[in-house]
Amino acid sequence: MGTTQLESVAEPKYWHLRTVLTEALDSEFAVGEILPNERDLAARFGVARATLRQALEQLELEGRLQRRRGVGTTVAPPRVGVAVGTEHHAWPGSAEDAWQPVDSVLAVPPAAVAEVLGTGPDEAVHTVRRSRTSQGQPVAAELLHIPRSSVPDLSAIDAPSGAARARAVLREVQRLELEGRENSVELGSARADDAKELDRLPGAPVLVVTTRFLSGGRVAALSVATYRADTCRLTFGASGGVEIHHGPQQRAS
Amino acid sequence: MGTTQLESVAEPKYWHLRTVLTEALDSEFAVGEILPNERDLAARFGVARATLRQALEQLELEGRLQRRRGVGTTVAPPRVGVAVGTEHHAWPGSAEDAWQPVDSVLAVPPAAVAEVLGTGPDEAVHTVRRSRTSQGQPVAAELLHIPRSSVPDLSAIDAPSGAARARAVLREVQRLELEGRENSVELGSARADDAKELDRLPGAPVLVVTTRFLSGGRVAALSVATYRADTCRLTFGASGGVEIHHGPQQRAS
DNA sequence: GAGTGGTCTAGACCACGTG
DNA sequence: ACGTGGTCTAGACCACTCA
């Protein structure tokens, strides 16, 4: 024996709580059901509220719970699958699924964006704001950066801003030949403006999808889209030519 | 005046702290540098340690900081780009980049996995464990589930387990014709075993990449890979036929 | 053993949604 | 007005790393 190892080697309370609650959610609760409030739950499990909250936080991160201030904690539905890089094999705005243009302005992008686009550090680019909903809920907010050189014919445009201008910019960009796209996904936290659009608090976890649109051997546009990490599962199309049907979203409980 | 609105409408302290620290990291700290300890930092900013920790947690989530118990908090390097769905346009184990087979056992998978594979609820499948490192650091742990029906000729195998057996299974699966793959990405938290392999604490945020391998009109294998969310940026190949060279990973600071 | 981050407590007050 | 989750405090102790 020597090191007699107890089964749990001092598992943190919040982690054990998470496990217990997960099992309870699987077996005893229906989607949408309201849980007891945090103070009651904490008392029931004999822990401080902060500890209970740590467990709930985990479960919300995993998409099992949804918490809303002033309302309560409810059991979340399974994550919704959101297609990325498939719905528009072409330029943004083409077949026009998913994304809703909000507005467009001419602005100097962050340094990181400018570097990818190859524009000068003080050079303004078209910045199209779009939003995406799924099943009535907002799931993503996007900033689409397009250098002026990508849309040279966009000079005499009537709308100074707003959705009309956004659509005009998207219309112009479609005239370019799209050679390819590159996606990357990373974890981030929602900034204040994104958070508001996604109906979350600042700092909420988001999946940041960065897409480079390639045309003429260079990056003709750059999209930075932030998806709600708690409610979304991003799906990427098959890399082969075969498209597969696999029924509605399901998840074994 | 009526509702005289101050500029910050009561921004939470931890969020403001996060902003201040972000700027400090951008301008005054080098990668790898050690920050003052949490108690000192909290005192310096005039907040409780818990509040300071909330800000640090955010920054760690965003990949800006790295915290290690007993050691300290250091400035993290930029996230490393990790190719997904490109390094093996073929079956796992083919060109053999990235993934290291660890072992393989015959076990009954979780219900959710069984459902996708179309196997019975008590049917055992080959479960290959693999790990992936990048720049000397572990970045991902994978469980590759392969129904016995996908590798029918794998009966008289010598190795009962271990890396040798894992390689044998991967060798067999390559004989199938790969028709396509489907990836999905979602946020999760590391379970105890994954956490240990990734050198993180249980509950650490991870990006869960689920890949369906399609052959013969059905799912011939299912991979569930968990990537460290703090250190990884997942990259997906261009969906067009064009492959683009874009130099080594870079990010504007 | 000294110093670090990780966990936990028992309170308090605030912001928000709903009746 | 009330009940909810969100923020914040000032402590305590634990687990880990390293000299």
From TrEMBL, chains A, B:
<feature type="domain" description="HTH gntR-type">
    <location>
        <begin position="11"/>
        <end position="78"/>
    </location>
</feature>
<dbReference type="GO" id="GO:0003700">
    <property type="term" value="F:DNA-binding transcription factor activity"/>
</dbReference>
<dbReference type="InterPro" id="IPR028978">
    <property type="entry name" value="Chorismate_lyase_/UTRA_dom_sf"/>
</dbReference>
<dbReference type="InterPro" id="IPR036390">
    <property type="entry name" value="WH_DNA-bd_sf"/>
</dbReference>
<dbReference type="GO" id="GO:0045892">
    <property type="term" value="P:negative regulation of DNA-templated transcription"/>
</dbReference>
<dbReference type="GO" id="GO:0003677">
    <property type="term" value="F:DNA binding"/>
</dbReference>
<dbReference type="InterPro" id="IPR050679">
    <property type="entry name" value="Bact_HTH_transcr_reg"/>
</dbReference>
<keyword id="KW-0238">DNA-binding</keyword>
<dbReference type="Pfam" id="PF07702">
    <property type="entry name" value="UTRA"/>
</dbReference>
<dbReference type="Pfam" id="PF00392">
    <property type="entry name" value="GntR"/>
</dbReference>
<dbReference type="InterPro" id="IPR011663">
    <property type="entry name" value="UTRA"/>
</dbReference>
<keyword id="KW-0805">Transcription regulation</keyword>
<keyword id="KW-0804">Transcription</keyword>
<dbReference type="InterPro" id="IPR036388">
    <property type="entry name" value="WH-like_DNA-bd_sf"/>
</dbReference>
<dbReference type="InterPro" id="IPR000524">
    <property type="entry name" value="Tscrpt_reg_HTH_GntR"/>
</dbReference>
<protein>
    <submittedName>
        <fullName>GntR family transcriptional regulator</fullName>
    </submittedName>
</protein>
